[in-house]
Amino acid sequence: MKALIFDSSPIITLALNDLLRILEPLKDSFNGEFFITEPVKYELFDKSIETKRFKLEALMIQDLIDKGIFKVKKDKMLFDEMQKIMNIANNTFKTESAGIKIIHDGEASCLALYKLLPFEDKAIVVDERTTRMLCENPVNFHKLLEKKHHVSIKANEVNYDFFRKFRIIRSSELVYIAFKKKIISFNFPNREVLDALLFALKFKGCSISYNEINAIKKML
Amino acid sequence: MIEREVDNLIYILKNAKKAINEEDIILLKELSNRTIHTASMYKDVDSVMVAITIYALSKLVERKKYEQYKDWDSFFRLCLKNIESASQALKQNRIRDFRESLIEIRTAANKLSPHLKKYIQDIFRKASINKASRIYEHGTSLGETANLLGISSWELAEYSGMTGIGDVDLSITMPIKERIKFTRDLFEK
Q1: Is the dihedral of CA A135, A137, A142, A143 positive or negative?
Q2: Does A49 touch chain B (CB under 8 A)?
Q3: Which among B147, B155, B151, B172 has a CA at the least distance from the CA of A107?
Q4: Pairing of β A71-73 and β A2-6
Q5: Segments making up each domain of chain B, as ranges
Q6: Strand A71-73 to A33-37 pairing
Q7: What is the DSSP letter of A99?
Q8: Chains A, B: CB contacts under 8 A, how many?
Q9: How many Å from the N-terminal Cα to the C-terminal Cα in chain B?
Q10: For residue A2, which residues of chain B lie inside 8 Å, CB to CB?
Q11: What is the DSSP letter of A157?
Q12: Which residues share a beta bridge with A6?
């Protein structure tokens, strides 16, 4: 069995670019499960449905849940694991007096679900930068914190190994796969279409650099 | 409130009042940024409130068009009065009064004519998103930042996407070819 666990950030990026429609064919092609956690659903639907600005996007996401494209995970074990992970993450970097709170329950719940799912083939889809940096390069993240805050920040490096096991992808990689599988196609040169897609994601919040976009285009 | 931050906040409020009177927008924006480190590191809501208020006031001072509204002068005077009283309250360790003074600046907009009210509320909302983006840039996650500032992750994602956050060298944590290969393999298994 395979699974992708979605944080709210890639779903926001896709929704703001009218690309939620790629998820159904992508899931068919993936042949596994797409999960969201209850805190992520709360962020994407319950909070957004109350606003005029993102109400339509909230409805479109609820529709994906109703169709079974996303399965919503909610149970006590997940909640307990989420609390544990928040505690570890938010005490990995410290000022003189306390841990720096870096992640919230949405992100932590994705890490918790990843840890609890008994599948070998799985990844977390996250577009926001902090969770990705914490998992993939906590050393760089420590440097970033110190550089931005202009102070020395203590790192509890023992925690680094805990986060290294999480595998992360972004909406940009999903869209690349959708493009390669012709789930997204336009009557225009491929390189230009991919350029348009990746920059659209970047400008709506996907943490991908200009250099990475250029590198992906060269892979065509 | 972070105790060591009190002096910094008093300094900011005192100088903000002066900068507002002198229409020194650059100084106002600098003062607003001075609280971001603390806001980001300690998740200090008071520092966040000061940052948003000062940034919003810099925008109001910058855009002269508001001066044409008849209730602008009274609103402006109320802002200055509350900046002063927030500063005095902090000096006397009256934290509750300090917070109420800042809240009064925001809620004062509710009593204004519909157009001016809408403009000012919009300025404060945009100021919140701008400050949220700065805090996200400092390493706090999107979800935690949105929660701290009381804005939606949608607005923050949209705004931060237009900044260079994703282009910072330290942000690149894995070669892109490797990440693409991992994703492709995951789909093909």
Answers
A1: negative
A2: no
A3: B147
A4: unpaired
A5: 3-188
A6: parallel
A7: B
A8: 171
A9: 52
A10: 186, 189
A11: G
A12: A125
Give the strand pairing for A154-155 and A93-94.
Answer: antiparallel
Neighbours of A75 (CB within 10 A): 12
**Which of B158, B173, B174, B183 lies closest to A179 in space, CA to CA?**
B183
For residue B95, CA distances in Å to B9, B35, B47, B81 come to: 12, 17, 12, 17
Q: How far apart are CA A42 and CA A109, in angstroms?
A: 12
- Helices then strands, each counted (H, E), chain A: 12, 7
List, for residues A63-112, the tens digit of each pLDDT value. Answer: 999 999 999 999 999 999 999 999 999 999 998 878 999 999 999 999 99
Q: What is the DSSP letter of B158?
A: H
- Residue A182 backbone class (left: φ over 0; alpha: ψ -120 to 50; beta: rest): left
In whole angstroms, what is the distance from residue B180 CA to residue A12 CA? Answer: 21
What residues of chain B lie within 8 A of the CB of A174, using their CB? 183
The reply to whether A52 touches chain B by the CB within 8 Å rule is no
Report ipTM (2 d.p.): 0.95
Amino acid at A140: N
Count of residues for chain A? 220
Whole-model pTM: value is: 0.94
